[in-house]
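Lab channel / #folding
Pinned by the channel admin:
"Please post every new chain as: sequence first, then the C-alpha cells as a reply. Keep commentary short and put observations after the output so the thread stays searchable."

First post following the new format, from NK:
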Amino acid sequence: MHLFVFFKEPVKAELVIPALHYMAARLGFEKKDYEVFPTSAGEDKFSRAISMPYGNMFDVLPEQSALAGHGNRQLLETCLYLAEKMRITAAELPEIPKESPQQESRRIPLALQTAILSTGPYPGNDRSPITASIIWQLRDLGFDADGIKTAVEGHGPFARYDDKEKPKDLKADIDRIITKYDLRHPNSRIVPKFSMQSSAEFVTNFVPPDYLIDGLIQRRFIYSMTGPTGEGKTSVALLLALFVDRGWKLDNREIDKGKVLFLAGENPDDVRMRWIKLLDDMKVNADEVNVFFVPGSFALSKQGLRDQIMKASEANGPFALIIVDTSAAFFEGDDENINTQMMAHAKRLRGLIDLIAGNPTVIVTSHPVKHFSRENMIPRGGGAFLNEMDGNLTCMKVDGTMVTELHWQGKFRGIDFAAIPFRLEVGKTDKLKDSKGRHIWTVIARSITEKERDAAEHTGQKNKAQLLVAMAKMPGASLADLAKEVGWTTKDGKPYRSLVQRLLSALREDKLVKKESGRWVLTKAGAKEAGTVAAQEELEMPF
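Reply from TO:
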C-alpha cells in the first residue's frame, strides 16, 4: 500500500515527516513495517527519492516530474481530479497527540486484539454481539469513537462494513453503541449528557443482556456469593468453574463455554484438594481443562501486580469467568466496617473486568455480616460493598441436610430465579493422600434435581424430629451420645457429631432448643414438639 499526501504549497519536511509517521501508526503499522519519504528534513539531505505515484502514471504533475523522469504519461482524469481536490495545507496536517497511536495500540490487551482480528465462525452467524462487545471493551480502555474506528476498521467481524453490495456506516454504529454504553453500562465512568428522546429513539437504546449462564449470570457483571463457613460456597464456585470450562448445562440453563480464572486467596491448599476430587469424580483430566488458578492473595492496588495479571491473562485468556475466593483474602484495608475502604475494595474487584480480556463475569465469594441470619445473608462491608455489586448470590444449606442452594438476597440485577440445589458430598480419592499414604477427606458439590432436593429436605425434617425425641429421652446428653442414640455414624463408624451440631443449629433457629450451662436442652416448644413426634411414632408402629 502507498499513501500519498499532496500539498497546495511547499511544506517543510520537518512538519511532514512526523505527520506521515503518525498516519502510518494510525493505520496499524510499526516502524519496521513501512518507509516514509522524505526520510530526513532539510535541503539535499534526502537519503533516496521515490517515484510518485507508483505504477503507470508517472511524470504528470510537475512536482512528480522533478522526482521521476521516466515512465509513461497516462493518468486517468478521475485520479488527477482527486489528487488536485485533496491537496492540503500545512495547517491541515493531522494534530499529533502526546500519546502516539502506536502507544495507544499497545494499551489493547492481546486477547482483545485477537478478537478484533478474528474471522469467526460467529455463533448463529451473527457478528453483532461480537462487534458490540469489542467496542465496549475499547470504550472501557478509554478509546473515543475515532480511536475505536481506527483500531477495528477492516478487521475480522468489522470487515462486513467493506461490503460494497450492502454498505454499512461503521462510524454511525460505533457512535450508537458508545451512546448505549455511556447511558446504560454499569462500568461507565462517563457522566451521560441530558437527553430527551422520543419513544422510538428511547427503545432503540435497548442493550440485549449477554449471559454467561443463560437467564442467570451476565457477562461483565460482578456478583458476590455470600454464605457462612461450611455452607458450600467454595465447592459450588469450583463446580461452576468446571461447568463453564466444559460448557455443560446448569439446571437446564445453557452456559457460554469459556476459560476460567480462579483466584484462590483464602486457602489454596483446600481449594486444590477439592479440585482434585471434583475432577476425579467427573472423570475429567486436569490437562484437559482451561481453568487457571492463582494461589495466594495479593494486593490488587499495586500497579506492578496488575501489569503481571494483564500479561498472564493475555498469554492464557481470554477468560469468561473470574472467581475470587474470598473477598476478605484480597481486602487491603484495616476495617471492613469503614465504607470508604470497602467501596475502594469493591471497585478494585470490579476493575478485574477491564483488566482481564474476554468480557468476564466476576464472582466474589464472601463471608456474611457478623450477626447474620437466613433472612440477612448480606456480604461483609454492608451497603458500600453491596452497592458496587450487580447481585448478591447466596449459598445456604437446607436445614438438616447436605444440600445447599444457590439463590440471591439483597440485590440482583436481572430476572428472579428459583433456588438451584447442589449436594455437598464428603469423600476421598486415591489421588489425595497424606505424607503417610492415608486418604484425605474433602468435600465437593454436585448439581441435583428438585426431586432430589425435596427428598433430602424430607430426610432432614425426619432427622430433626428424631433428634428432638432423643433429647427428650436424654436431657443434657453430649453430641456423641445423641448421635449414638439415633444411630448416626460417619463412614468410619464414629458418632456423627457434626450432623447433630448442624441439626441443633437449625432447631435453635426454630426456637425448639437452646443452650444452658454449655449443654443443649429442649425449650418448652421443643418438648411439646418431641412429645408430638413420639406419639406419632407410636401410632405408626406395626402390631
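NK: The longest strand covers residues 403-412.
TO: also worth noting, The two ends are 98 Å apart (CA to CA).
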